[in-house]
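Q: I'm a student working through a structural biology exercise. My instructor gave each of us a protein and asked us to get a predicted structure, then write a short paragraph describing it. Mine is HTH araC/xylS-type domain-containing protein. I'm not confident about reading structure output yet, so if you can add a plain explanation after the tokens, that would really help. Here is the sequence I was given:
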Amino acid sequence: MCAKAYCVQAESTPACKCGGVLMGEEKMFQPYFLEQMVNMMHAPFYIFADQKEMIQKFGGREIETILFEKNPELVQNAFSKKNKEYPVILTDKVLVFAVFDSGMAEGAIMIAGPVTIGRLSQETLLQLRREYKLGRKSGYTPPVCPLDKFVSGILLLHWHLTGQKLTSAELWQKNQRYYSATVNIQNRISQDIFMRQENAGLHNPYEQELRELDSIERGDTEALKRSISETYEGEIGILAKDPLRSHKNVAVGNITLASRAAIRGGISVEKSFSMADSFIQQVEEIDNVPEVEAFKRESQYFYARLVNEENTRGGEKQNVRKNPLIGQVKDYIFNHLHDTIQVSDIAAHMQVNPDYLSHLFSSQEKMTITSYIRQEKVRRGENLLKYSDYRVQEIAFYLGFCSQSHFARVFQQIVGISPNEYRKKFGNRKKWKMK
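A: Happy to help. First, here is the predicted structure for HTH araC/xylS-type domain-containing protein. I'll explain a few features afterward.
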């Protein structure tokens, strides 16, 4: 350990090269903490002296050291953006960094990263290696850290360094000054509104959108069809310069709004969100505008049909306003469909009395919790029989049934035919996309 009290030096690191630069005087920093941050965030951490020389690293690979050496502008940019009050989040192409100056010794900074917030395609990786002078054969692949986890790690480290607590909202608000898009937001909005008023005319009426969402919330596919078919003078907004990208962006917005309307209509939050994730991913795979439009509309109909099915028991529409606990029960079941689910487990998770929960659910859903569990497991089984090649035995165990015969018996009771008959009748042997 360096003689200066504020130096950080991992046990495996050679003697300190600068005499200690990490923390201010009378502060001790434990390398153990940064080592655990590396494990948590999958991000390397580097300490740079005021001469912009790397003097410490945690979790960093040799290839990342080479990246900084061959691209000194990255470190120069970090030093130019350092701020004593809060961490600064920087991006360079697809790489993301965080710069820490607060809590550091005079003239020193810490850089967290580089990471990417999602996995990169092979084409992007090759381009990245070329642009950072690493060579096509270097094999460099940045570590992946989702943005929310990266931000949480940054906030935790800032607190550890300074004792100051920041929220994620405060962090982004303070970082706005470093992003040209946020700095210029008001000017760009004024320009875009002016150009639209001059060239594009009016948007579609807001009331029409409300009618669409209300139809989904009520599970009324006929009303949804009428709303979609309305004629009006307005136009769909232009959300990107490329027409395909613009229509995809509109579809993403419509699907997101439909998922929220479905939740208001009684669909489980987790189920609705998971469906939206799937729908949006499928939109991204489409390569032409007409198919995007057709898929967007079918997604809306899908939600409306699901709401109608969810809220219709015994052929009668249920109009009772549901207790919020009902949604929590459905969320729990949706997240544990692959397990053996007991009512007592749900009640314990929600910290309510099992008998009260059972009575509440039965009175509002017109079926017992156990029956609902079976119904949802069979629904998932139908999808697997339609769209996967799993054997019936595999599906039975996948859904938490004790045996294939038990699954077949419950399936027959609910659907009316056996799993094998169902697959012969409806199976298409294609990769399944829904639910």
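A: Here are two points you could use in your paragraph. The first strand starts at residue 45 and ends at 48. Confidence is low (pLDDT under 50) at residues 1-21, 24-28, 429-435. It's a good idea to check both against the output above yourself.
Q: Great, thank you!
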